[in-house]
Structure formats: C-alpha cells, structure tokens
Write a structure and sequence with these properties.
Strand content: 25-35%
Mean pLDDT: 89
CATH superfamily of the largest domain: Nucleic acid-binding proteins
Structural class: alpha/beta
CATH architecture of the largest domain: Beta Barrel
Number of helices: 3
Low-confidence stretches: none
Helix content: 25-40%
Oligomer: single chain
Strand order of the largest sheet: 2-3-4-6-5
Radius of gyration: 22 Å
C-alpha cells in the first residue's frame, strides 16, 4: 500500500511539473533586442557583399545571430497589418538589408526618413538572392540602436 502511494505521488508531481513547463513555454515572450548586445557590427554594403560572395560562410557568421547593421535608409514600408520594415542600402543598388521592426518599437519609425543614416539591430534570419530584383539580407525583430 505504501509503495502504491509513492508511485501515485511521483506520477502526480511529474504531471504538475509537465503542466507548469508547458504553461511557461506557452506564455513565453520574445526577448526585446534593445537590451541584447550585438554579436557583430557591420555596414550594409559589407553584409550584402559577404552573402553574395559566399553564402555558406556568411550563414555561419551571421545566421541566427543578433547583428547591428549601419547604413542609409532606402525606404520605409508599412504592410496591411500596420507593421513597418526599414530597407537599408545604397539607393542605386537593387540589393538591400530588409529590417522587419519589432512590434514594441513601431513608434520610433515615424521619425525616420529616406536617406538618413542609422544603425539597426536585429536577428539575421536569411538571405534571398535574385539576379533580377536584387539580393536581400533579412533581419527580424529589429530595433533602432541609439
């Protein structure tokens, strides 16, 4: 009888721990990158050219890491849901760094204008290469570094 109680108590504790862990993961928030130190600092032209020259090496260096990119604003786009993306790069080039801004930092974008030089910090999530439309390096959850 005593052995049975210990087994039932162990099962109950395991279920409670599993439920607590599941709830914690379900309600977890994404880290605000304004408080995270950038793992690399680079200019837009250097970042784009590193991906265009050797995508595999650039992926090892930047993919999945928080990087700070300095460059001039080509344009600012707003999608149908009201979220902003800041496109950095040389206005004469088709290639750019596309920075999807963090939801909590959308208000900062209204003060920006094309041609302004800024530093944007974000998580590098990929690279799309297109010879006709230009290449894009993608950063997500971006914040403007001050």
């Amino acid at each position: 009888m005593k052995k049975r109680k210990i087994i039932l108590l162990t099962i109950a504790v395991a279920i409670l721990c599993g439920a607590w862990y599941g709830y914690r993961e379900y309600t977890r928030k994404v880290t605000d990158l304004s408080h995270v130190k950038a793992q690399a600092r680079i200019g837009t032209e250097d970042l784009i050219s590193s991906f265009e020259m050797n995508e595999k090496t650039a992926n090892e260096m930047y993919l999945g890491k928080v990087i700070a990119v300095k460059g001039s604003i080509k344009s600012i786009e707003k999608d149908d849901k009201g979220y902003y993306s800041v496109i950095l790069g040389d206005a004469s080039s088709m290639s750019s760094v596309r920075c999807s801004m963090d939801m909590d930092h959308q208000a900062e974008i209204t003060t920006l204008a094309a041609g302004t030089s800024i530093t944007v910090k974000g998580a590098c999530t990929g690279f799309t290469a297109d010879e006709l439309l230009g290449s894009d390096v993608i950063l997500n959850r971006c914040v403007i570094e001050k």
